[in-house]
Design brief:
Length: 590
C-alpha cells in the first residue's frame, strides 16, 4: 500500500541546472558505494597529542589554520544585541574554561552539566569541557526542578554551569539530592557565593592556552537524556568518535559548504541543538548563527534576511506556526541567500514540505534521527527528488531496513510498502555506546546486528522511508520527547492524586500535547479548582515544556490484570479509534 501522503503530492524534482551551488551529495549511488567511515575520518584532523577530540575538530584545528579569523559563532541576543566570536577567540575562551575546570580538580570523565539558555557561555562551557575530556550533559533550561535533578542524579554531575536565576529557582533546593555536585558556576555572578563560583572570576584567572590531552575516540564525550515508556530518563552515552558522523551528515544531509552561514533553531538542551547547533557547523568551519530568543516569525525572518543564512535547520512545529501566518508574511524579507532548508524531530506534514516552495522558494528537506543515533541517519538531501511526507533515504554509510520480529527471536525484513519497525545496521561512529547504568535496557535495543529504533515506518520501492508512528508510548510535543512516566510521577506526588496516566493527544501545531488522566483520592473534588491546582503543580515541578496541557478526571483508570494502566486504551478512546484487544483489561470505570 503506498503511504497515504504519497498520492496527494507530486514528487518535487530537482533539476541539476537549478542548483546555485553544486550539492555535496550529487551521485547517491556512487557516494554510497565508495563510502567508508575510515575515509570520512580522514577528512578530519587527528589530535596532535593523539586520538580524536570533538572540541579540537570543532575549534582548535580552525583556530590554528586559515579560518582563525572567521566568525565561528554569531550570537543574537534576546534584546537584539549581537556578538561575533571568531574561531581564534572561541579557542581562547574554551581554553580558559578547560583550564578553569582542571584548576578546580575536574578530571577526564567527570560530568559537567550545562543549564543555560542559548548564551555564548553555553557554547564555551560545552566545548571547553570537551577539551578537558569531561563528559558534557546539556539540560534544557525550560525544564523544571524535577527533570533537572533526576538527570543530574543519574549522570552524577560534578560541575554545573548555569545562571544565578536558574540556580536559585530550579537547583538550590534540590542540592542535597546531588552529593557529587561540588562546583556550581554562575555565568552572570561577579563574585563567588555560598556554594557557587563566578564564571567571570574563574575564567579571567585562567590561561588562554591549553593543549588537549590524547583522547581515545571511544572515550565518553556527551551524555544526552531521552525517555522511554516506563522508568526514569535514560542517559545516552556518546563518544568523541561521534564527530565523524557529525562531519559526514553536515556534508551530505545539510550540504554545508565553505562559506555558509548556518542556523539550527534547536536548543542545545536537546540532541539536535548539540549535534547540529554546536558541533557539525563548527567542524565544517562555517559561521554558526545562534539566536537566543524563542520562536517569533518576524524575528526569525529578520535573522534569515539580515544575517544571510544560507542553510537553515528547523523543526515541524515552527514550520506549522509559520504556515499559520501565511506565506505572504515572508515576502517582505530578502531571503536570496537561503539555499537549503531542512527539518527534523517529528513528522513533517507533506503540506509543510510543499508550503516551503511557496514561502521560501524551496521545499523543507525532512530528515530523521534520534538521540541514540547521535546524528542524521535518513535524509532528503539537497540533490534528491522529494516525495513530500517522506523522511528521505539513508545517508552513505547507513543501512536502514524495515523489520519484523520473527518467531525464532530474530528479525526479518519486510517487503517494500509494508509497515514494520525501523532498524539500522549497527556500526556508525555516533551510535550510542550505552544507556548509563542500564545495560539491560541498552541490550534490548539490539537484535543481532540491528539496532531497533522504536519507530514504525515503511520503505517504498524507490528506497524512500515513511514514518508511521512510535512503537511505544513516548510523546513528541513541539519536537521534545517526553516520557509519560516522568509526568505521571510528578502528578502522583500531589496528595490528591491516586492514579495518573499520560498520553500524547494530536495537536495541529505541536504535533502532540501532553494530556493526563487523573483519578483522585477519596475526599478530593474533581472540579475546576483542582484541575488548575494540578496543572500548576505539574508546571512547577516539570517546567512548561514537559507539564500536561490538559487534565481529565476519571473515577479510576483502565488497568490490566497485573495492575498496569492501559495508556493505549485511553489514547484510543481519546481519538475515537478501535480499542483493540481488551482481554487483559481488569478494571475500567469511565
Ligand atoms: P529524539 O531522540 O528526542 O531526537 O526523538 C527521536 C524520535 O523523534 C524518533 O524516534 C521519531 O519518533 C521522532 N522523529 C525524529 N525525526 C523525525 C521525522 N523526520 N519524522 C518523524 N518522526 C521523527
Amino acid at each position: 500500500m503506498p503511504p497515504p501522503d504519497a498520492a496527494r503530492y507530486a514528487t518535487i524534482h530537482k533539476a541539476r541546472s537549478t542548483f546555485a551551488v553544486a550539492p555535496n551529495l550529487l551521485d547517491y549511488g556512487a557516494a554510497c558505494a565508495a563510502f567508508s567511515w575510515d575515509r570520512a575520518r580522514k577528512d578530519l584532523s587527528d589530535l596532535p597529542s593523539g586520538g580524536l577530540n570533538i572540541a579540537y575538530e570543532a575549534v582548535d584545528r580552525h583556530a590554528r589554520g586559515p579560518r582563525a579569523e572567521r566568525v565561528a559563532l554569531r550570537w543574537i541576543g534576546k534584546a537584539g544585541e549581537r556578538r561575533d566570536i571568531t574561531y581564534r577567540e572561541l579557542a581562547a575562551s574554551t581554553n580558559r574554561f578547560a583550564n578553569a575546570l582542571q584548576s578546580m580538580g575536574a578530571k577526564a570523565g567527570d560530568g559537567v552539566f550545562v543549564l543555560l539558555g542559548r548564551v555564548p557561555e553555553l557554547y564555551v562551557a560545552m566545548l571547553g569541557a570537551l577539551k578537558a575530556k569531561c563528559v558534557v550533559s546539556p539540560l534544557f533550561s525550560a525544564f523544571g526542578p524535577e527533570p533537572i535533578a533526576t538527570r543530574m542524579e543519574i549522570g552524577e554531575a560534578r560541575v554545573l554551569v548555569t545562571t544565578e536565576a536558574l540556580y536559585r529557582r530550579k537547583v538550590e533546593a534540590l542540592r542535597e539530592r546531588l552529593p557529587k555536585l561540588d562546583c556550581v558556576i554562575l555565568v552572570d555572578a561577579d563574585q563567588d557565593g555560598e556554594g557557587t563560583l563566578s564564571w567571570r572570576k574563574l575564567t579571567q584567572a585562567s590561561s588562554e592556552t591549553f593543549e588537549i590531552q590524547a583522547t581515545d575516540p571511544q572515550e565518553t564525550a556527551l551524555l544526552h537524556f531521552t525517555s522511554g515508556t516506563t522508568g526514569r530518563p535514560k542517559g545516552v552515552i556518546h563518544v568523541h568518535e561521534a564527530v565523524v558522523t557529525h562531519y559526514m551528515t553536515g556534508l551530505y544531509a545539510l550540504d554545508l559548504h565553505e562559506n555558509d552561514r548556518f542556523w539550527c533553531t534547536a536548543d542545545p538542551g536537546w540532541v539536535t541543538g548539540t549535534s547540529y547547533g554546536v558541533i557539525a557547523p563548527l567542524v565544517h568551519g562555517v559561521t554558526n548563527i545562534v539566536v537566543e530568543a524563542e520562536f517569533d516569525a518576524p524575528t526569525w525572518y529578520g535573522v534569515l534576511a539580515q544575517d544571510k543564512v544560507s542553510v537553515w535547520y528547523t523543526a515541524p512545529t515552527a514550520i506549522r506556526m509559520m504556515m499559520k501566518l501565511g506565506a505572504a508574511a515572508v515576502k517582505d524579507y530578502d531571503l536570496s541567500a537561503l539555499r537549503f532548508a531542512a527539518s527534523v524531530g517529528e513528522p513533517l506534514n507533506a503540506e509543510a514540505v510543499v508550503w516551503g516552495m511557496e514561502a521560501f522558494g524551496m521545499p523543507f528537506h525532512d530528515n530523521w534521527w534520534q538521540t541514540e543515533t547521535g546524528g542524521i541517519m535518513i535524509a532528503n538531501f539537497a540533490s534528491m527528488d522529494i516525495k513530500p511526507g517522506s523522511m528521505g533515504r539513508p545517508l552513505p554509510g547507513i543501512e536502514a531496513a524495515i523489520v519484523r520480529r520473527n518467531s525464532d527471536g530474530g528479525v526479518e525484513t519486510v517487503s517494500a510498502g509494508e509497515e514494520g519497525e525501523l532498524a539500522l545496521r549497527s556500526g556508525w561512529p555516533s551510535m550510542m555506546r550505552g544507556y548509563l547504568h542500564e545495560e539491560a535496557r541498552y541490550k534490548k535495543c539490539f537484535l543481532g546486528e540491528w539496532y531497533l529504533t522504536g519507530d514504525l515506518a515503511r520503505c517504498d520501492q524507490d528506497g524512500y522511508f515513511w514514518f508511521v508512528g512510535r512503537a511505544d508510548d513516548v510523546i513528541k510535543s513541539s519536537g521534545h520527547l517526553i516520557g509519560p512516566f516522568e509526568v505521571e510521577s510528578a502528578l502522583m506526588e500531589h496528595p490528591a492524586v491516586a492514579e495518573a496516566a499520560v498520553i500524547g493527544k494530536p495537536d495541529p501545531i505541536a504535533g502532540e500535547i501532553v494530556k493526563a488522566f487523573v483519578a483522585l483520592r477519596l475526599g478530593f473534588d474533581a472540579d475546576e479548582a483542582m484541575r488548575k491546582e494540578l496543572l500548576g503543580h505539574a508546571r512547577k515541578r516539570l517546567g512548561a515544556a514537559v507539564a500536561p496541557k490538559e487534565i481529565e478526571f476519571r473515577v479510576n483508570l483502565p488497568k490490566t490484570r497485573s495492575g498496569k494502566i492501559m495508556r493505549r486504551l485511553l489514547k484510543a478512546r481519546e481519538l475515537g479509534m478501535p480499542e483493540g484487544d481488551l482481554s487483559t483489561l481488569e478494571s475500567d470505570e469511565r
